[in-house]
Sequence to fold (176 residues):
Amino acid sequence: MDPLKSAWDNAPTPDRDISAIIVKHTSPVLKDIRKQVILEAIGYSIFLIVYYDFFDGDKKPYYLNLLLVVSILCMLAQSVTGYVLARSPAVEYNLLESMRKKLHNIRKYALITIFTKILAFAGIFAFFLASIRWTQQKYLTLIPLVIIVGVQAYFQWKIWKGRIYRVKQTVEELNQ
Fold:
């Protein structure tokens, strides 16, 4: 037992204090998520600034313009919500209860994320496809787009299912 204790005592300590990282929210993962949210916000903002001229928003009905803007804003809100969820630390003193709350929040966020993206893509498609004069060939062209959105939703659900499963496993291990 002494060699193990000696190795533990002589183990190098991290350069940064973990509690300081949590308080300042300077985790490398959070930095990456924050960068992604900022890049998405910039991209969505540029799109919203130019869509009216570039994609003939002035020639489309008001409700389609509103639908497009709301769809884009929903996708941005979903990204920001994900960052806030990832940033919020467990506040309970009981680790098991904290993990249960985190699991509940992740499940809820996963469903909201998937439905938000599907609805947002539907809104974007509605904006771009509303002024098209539909023929049978154009309907056949639309089928792959719908399939792509469905496949994306499926894979996104699989990813979230895996994340939820890992947190659920942790909760079950803590429960024992």
Remarks:
- Residues 50 and 57 are 9 Å apart (CA to CA).
